[in-house]
Amino acid sequence: MKIIVLAGGKSNEREVSMTSGSKIANALIAKGHKVLLVDLLTGMPEHSNFDSAYKEYKTENYQYNVSETVPNFDKYSDIEIGKNVLEICGSAGITFFALHGGIGENGKLQAIFDVYNIKYTGSGYQSSLLAMDKLISKELMRFHGIPTANWTVISDLEEMEEVCLPAVVKPTDSGSSIGISIVEDHDSLQQAVKEALKYSGSSKILVEDKIVGREFSVGVLGKQVLPAIELIPKAGFYDYQNKYQIGRTEEIVPANIDVYLAGQMKDLALRIHQVLGLSVCSRSDFLIDENNNIYLIEVNSLPGMTPTSLLPQEAAAVGIDFEDLCERVVSESLLKYE
Q1: I need a labelling partner for 219 at 20 to 30 A (CA). Which of 33, 47, 55, 303 fits?
Q2: What is residue 141's three-state secondary structure?
Q3: Average pLDDT of 173-187?
């Protein structure tokens, strides 16, 4: 099958996406597919269809590693979709979205592909939007009785006096823990809000009550709920560096946790997957406090596929290796178009 793996783009999570895309492309090549890794931002200026691009750019091994710094886009203008991206993707059998953040995860690109009748992996535009917007998804959690940390929304620095501390400050529409700070006092709150605003696509900042406890994640693949994985950073919290730099976090799967609690998290992961209307795959993040209260923190509609990412580790724990996982994502996605 002719498959475009679409990665990169103009997103703070660009490097995570390029790393995911490289691994996915290599896995699908190993499965016998004709594969091209395409950067959403730069595109392929000299080629407008899969076959001509494949002749020039065919490779058997893609390599990319996440650096410790968030990318800078000062040298780019308002470009969101590179030249010939839609044409090349439209001439392939399906496009594998290895995108994180930006238009690749907030539903905008999914909507564009729907308009052009281009097949792609993962959830549709509506559910992608709901999952990406942390405020909307938390409101839906609360409405459906799914436990989540209490929160306040700040849109003005003067509103900070209303915040209960300690707290977790984060953009409402960013992933990979970019722009997130844990604050213990009002002296550090203002700086945390300013940091979150740097990475937010809106003027609203989410301030959640700090939950002290163990951190877990649970993936959904098709109709299968994968085992919980526990995350134990060696220093600090599970931030951008601890997520993507090898050796920074201990990951235990299946998690060493009470069977009942593990089952509860799996039920909640499937429930929010269905509430948001997600399809193909998702990953939900949880905290469990010292009294065994479970809190669903957020949902990821396009889970990472880097060497340190969680969904592949959870899949491996039930005998699904990385190549088969990528193949499953393709086959589950094609079901949408039958």
Answers
A1: 33
A2: helix
A3: 69
